[in-house]
Amino acid sequence: MRRIGVIVNPIAGMGGRVGLKGTDGAATLARARELGAQPVSAEHAARALRELPEGLELLAAPGTMGTASCTAAGRPCATLAISATGAEATRAAALAMQRAGVDLLLFAGGDGTARDVLAAIGMALPILGIPTGVKMQSAVFATSPAAAGRVAAGYLRDGLLREAEVMDLDEEALRDDRVSPRLHGFALVPRERALMQACKAGASVPDEAALEALSRRIVAQMQPGRLYLLGCGTTTRRIKRALGFAGTLMGIDVALDRRLLAADVSEAQLLRLLGQAPATAILGVTGGQGFLLGRGNQQLSPAVLRRVGRENIMVVAGAQKLALLDPACLHVDTGEPALDAALSGYIAVHTAPGRTAMLRIAA
Length: 363
What we know:
This protein is an alpha/beta fold. The chain is built from 13 helices and 16 strands.
């Protein structure tokens, strides 16, 4: 019988909707809870587990670190005895699962969780990430929780593996508005392309002039009395600078009448503002990965997106960035499969003044 290990980071992703850049560290977690953040990783993990075929043996970390998600998914499991807490518990569970001889380790979390798993077992065991964090730069994650379950099922059939990067951003640097990525190593993951996200890639120099001109055009065409929700990343930051303010690199800013109305907003702030005026959301594309939603911009929650409407989402990206996407499609991972499906289909991506490319959004 094939054996799957299950580890869930119960606090991963809690900071997303409240405008924090992650939940690493006791102080950040406490702040997230003060702001009303709710756990999201348990249900994400359960969604992945529901996609697994019958007849598997699941070995889970205890309580909210695994067993609870198995129970929610209706999947019986054996439970590890782990006495450690926090990141050390993740490392201890990963090592115990390696020793138990699981065929694949499924973990739910973000880049920090991937680093802990890598530190414990290296390349001794195939791993697969269920995306529940805020940023997720690493190439060890599936494109969505359900996709993770399908990738795991495919690996159990064919047994094909490849090496993938484990990356992470310095969260303190992010809070100082600096992007500081680092490669922490490589892990073995299932050899799947369409359902796995790529490693985060940087901006392309050939796109610079076109995007600067596009930013000025977008600002010139902004409608009075309309909110503009400006997404995170360097592409949308050009629009913020064209409006006359620096903007938040890894957060959502709101402009009204070509002026900054609110900076680095949370989901709750966005919902209050959307009750006052119609809005357009301007989103960039994550380089190398093709994500529009669900990677670093969880403030744009399902409730916010429904208020905005798909017809009021504008996508901006450099033509070279789009050309490097493999496969050539965009991704959304809002946390609600029904909304992801509603957002799917073709969308125009603005690459320069008067120029667009049509790309498919794959849920």
